[in-house]
UniProtKB/TrEMBL annotation, chains A, B:
It comes from Asanoa hainanensis. GO terms for cellular component: cytoplasm. This is Ornithine cyclodeaminase.
C-alpha cells in the first residue's frame, strides 16, 4: 500500500530548509543529466486537457505530476513516485502543496545562490500562494528581518503581512505601491498573474536579487526589459523549458545562465555586491517527484 | 482525502456481473460519443516510458490510467478518478485489478451480446491473468456448466482448472491440446502471449463465439485468417484503436463491427445459432476510469 499524502501531510512534514536543499540537489542532478525530465505529455478531453510531467532519477525513482486545465478552483493535482528498482508505487500526494512548495523552494535555491550573502530584507509583489511559498523558502536561506508586501487588494496584502509575522516570525508591512515594496530591499519576489510590468527597475536597490515567478513572455510579462537590461546575471532553473515557451521568452535564451550549473559550481553566480541578479522561474520538470521522494522519507511533525 | 483502493479492495468490491454491466454501459457511452477517450500520451524516460490513457464522461468524471514500460514484474499501475464538477480526486486505485478486470468484463460483454443464448460450455487457451478475468466475466453472463483449459505449462493449466472449480464453482478440466480445449465448446477464450496462431478454425463448433485477447496484428497474432474467414461477425470494442495498430490489425477495419453499436441496439449481433462470431479485444480507452467510478460507489464485501 503506497503512502498517500494530503496537503496537510505535506505541510506537516516539509520545512523550508529541507525543501530548498532538495531543490538544490535537483538542480545539480538536472545539470549533470541524472534527473531526466521529458517534455510534458497531454490528453485532450472535452473542454480541457489532462497533463503529465514526468521525471526519472536513474536507478532511484521515476514518476509524474498530473494536473488538468479545466480551471476548477479546488481541482486537485497528483504527484506519483515509483521505486525504480521494482516499479512499485511508493507514495502519492494529492493536492497543491508539493507543486507550489517545489516552485517556492526553487526560488529559495536561487536566493541562496544569487542574493548577497548579507541580504536581510525582502520585498514582495503579489499575495497569492506562489508569493507565499517563495517567501517561505527565501526566509530559510537568509536571516530575514523585514518584509514589505504589495498587491492590488489592500485586504489580501494586509492578510499576507499578518501571516508573515505569525508563521515566519518576521516583521512585515503591507504597503500601497510596488515601488514602496521593493525600494531598498535586498531580495525582491514578484509573483503575480499580471501580463504587464508591475515594477520598475529604477526602483530596485543596487545589489538586489529578483525572483520572477509569473508571466515572462514577449508581450505578456509581469516585468519589462528595463529590468533585464540592468541585470548582470539572468538565471533560470531550466534553459530548455524557457527556450520552448510559446509565445517566446521575453529575452534570448543565450542570455540565460543555468541555475543548476551555478549550484554545481561550474558557472559563476553573483560577481559583486553591487550587481543586480535575476532569477526567471520556469518550474524545472521532474522536481515535483524529486520533492515527493524527500517528503516520503520524512515523518509528520505537526 | 480520496478513496485509495488496492488490488484486494477492488477484488472485494467488484463482482463479475457488476463489472460486465459497467462495461456494457461504457461501450454504449463510447458509441454515443459521451465517453471521450483520446489517444494515449507518453513521456520518454531512460529505458522506458510512462504512459497515460485518459477518459472523460461529460459532466460526470474524468481521469486516467498510468502505467510504464520498464517491465518490472511487480510494477504497479494507477487509475485516477476526478469529479467533473469540482476537479477533486474521488478515488485512486493502485495495482493491476482494475485494468485486468475491465478487459475481462469487456470480454464478458462481448459474450453476453454475441454468444448463443443457450451457451453453457467454455474452452480456454491460456492460463494467465487475462484468461482468468475473461472466464470470470463470461461465467456471469451464461449458466456455464463446464470449462476446458489448455496452456503450454501442464502445471499452470492444472492450477487454472482447480481455481475455476474452487472460485467459480464450475467443473473444469485441464487438457493436453488447444484443439481439445475448444472442440465442441460454445464459447472460446484465447488469451495468450503467442505471436503465432494457437488454434485452428476447423476445431471450432458451429455457432461458437470466440474472444481473442492477445496479439492480433499482421505477422504477429495468436490466431490466423482461417478463423476470421469463417466468422459471420467480427466485433471489436474500439474500431478506432484497432485501426491505429502498428503493425496493422490482421484484417481490414472495414470488416469490424462496433460492439458498442451492438450494445446500443443500432447494429445487429449474431444472426443465427449456426454462425461463428468473433470478438477482437483491443481495450477501449477510458474504461478503466469508467470501472473505477463504479467500484468507488461499492462497499467492500469480503
Amino acid at each position: 500500500m503506497p503512502l498517500l499524502l494530503t496537503d496537510a501531510d505535506v505541510a506537516a512534514r516539509l520545512d523550508a530548509a529541507a525543501a530548498v536543499a532538495a531543490m538544490r540537489d535537483a538542480l545539480v542532478a538536472a545539470h549533470e543529466g541524472r534527473l531526466i525530465a521529458p517534455p510534458r505529455a497531454s490528453a485532450v478531453l472535452e473542454g480541457g486537457r489532462l497533463v503529465m510531467t514526468a521525471g526519472h532519477l536513474a536507478d532511484e525513482w521515476y514518476g509524474f505530476r498530473s494536473y488538468d486545465t479545466f480551471g476548477h478552483a479546488d481541482g486537485e493535482q497528483l504527484v506519483v513516485l515509483h521505486d525504480a528498482r521494482d516499479g512499485r508505487i511508493r507514495a502519492i500526494a494529492v493536492g497543491e502543496e508539493i507543486g507550489s512548495r517545489r516552485t517556492g523552494a526553487l526560488g529559495g535555491a536561487a536566493v541562496d545562490l544569487l542574493a548577497r550573502p548579507d541580504a536581510t530584507t525582502i520585498g514582495v509583489i503579489g499575495s497569492g500562494r506562489q508569493a507565499w511559498t517563495q517567501l517561505w523558502a527565501a526566509a530559510a536561506v537568509r536571516p530575514v528581518r523585514g518584509v514589505r508586501v504589495f498587491s492590488r487588494s489592500a485586504a489580501r496584502r494586509s492578510a499576507f503581512a499578518t501571516r508573515v509575522s505569525a508563521e515566519l516570525g518576521i516583521p512585515a508591512t503591507a504597503v500601497d505601491s510596488a515601488a514602496e515594496a521593493v525600494r531598498g530591499q535586498d531580495v525582491v519576489i514578484v509573483a503575480t498573474t499580471s501580463e504587464r510590468p508591475v515594477l520598475a527597475a529604477a526602483d530596485l536597490a543596487p545589489g538586489a536579487h529578483v525572483n520572477l515567478v509569473g508571466f515572462k513572455q514577449r508581450g505578456r510579462a509581469e516585468f519589462g526589459l528595463d529590468l533585464l537590461d540592468r541585470a548582470a546575471l539572468i538565471a533560470t532553473d531550466s534553459p530548455a523549458q524557457a527556450g520552448a515557451y510559446e509565445p517566446p521568452l521575453i529575452c534570448p535564451t543565450r542570455d540565460l545562465r543555468s541555475l543548476g550549473a551555478v549550484a554545481a559550481g561550474v558557472a559563476p553566480g553573483r560577481g559583486s555586491v553591487e550587481e543586480l541578479t535575476v532569477f526567471l522561474s520556469v518550474g524545472l520538470a521532474g522536481t515535483e517527484v524529486f520533492l515527493l521522494d524527500r517528503v516520503a522519507a520524512l515523518q509528520n511533525v505537526a
